[in-house]
Amino acid sequence: MRPHTTATDDSLFFWEAAARGALVAQRCGACGVMRHPPRPMCPHCHSLDHEVVDLSGRGSLYSYALLHHPQHPAFDYPVFAALVELDEGIRLVSNLVDVEPADIRIGMRLEVAFEPTADGGAVPVFRPAGSPS
Ligand SMILES: [Zn+2]
Q: How far, in Å, is the centroid of ligand 1 from the Cα of 132?
């Protein structure tokens, strides 16, 4: 079981959405630019006004690394750490699941899935698009 998530005042909405199986992000209420990770101020126009929007959960693999050390008992190794470029134009650090290392390709299409955490929440992970559920 994955460790519990660590929510801050800024990221609580993200983890609450993940716990109900939704991937969301902030969108600036002034200029409309999407942003992630969550933060109080728009990096483009400095507005504090924002809204939370649902994402498609689809994207492509921008970069990745296979993590071997240090190991934590809650994970199977290697852990596939992925930087996913979402179709909405923002990038998210996550994990790849349901894929063999030899099949990983930069640019491969991915879709979100959710894995439970020890505190009853969930974390978004990504698998090859079209994988059986
Ligand atoms: Zn803005």
A: 38
Domain that holds residue 27: 12-128
Span 83-88, average pLDDT: 98
On whether residue 1 sits in a domain, the answer given is no
**Distance separating alpha carbons of residues 21 and 7, to the nearest angstrom:** 16
Q: How far is the CA of 38 from the centre of ligand 1 (A)?
A: 13
pTM higher than 0.90 for the full model?
Answer: yes
Q: Does residue 96 carry a pLDDT above 80?
A: yes
Q: Is the pLDDT of residue 76 over 90?
A: no
Q: How far is the CA of 2 from the centre of ligand 1 (A)?
A: 34
Question: How far, in Å, is the centroid of ligand 1 from the Cα of 27?
Answer: 8
Domain annotation covers residue 6:
no
Domain count, the chain: 1
Residue 17: its H or E element: helix 12-19
Chain segment 30-42, per-residue pLDDT in tens: 999 999 999 999 9
Structural domain includes residue 5: no
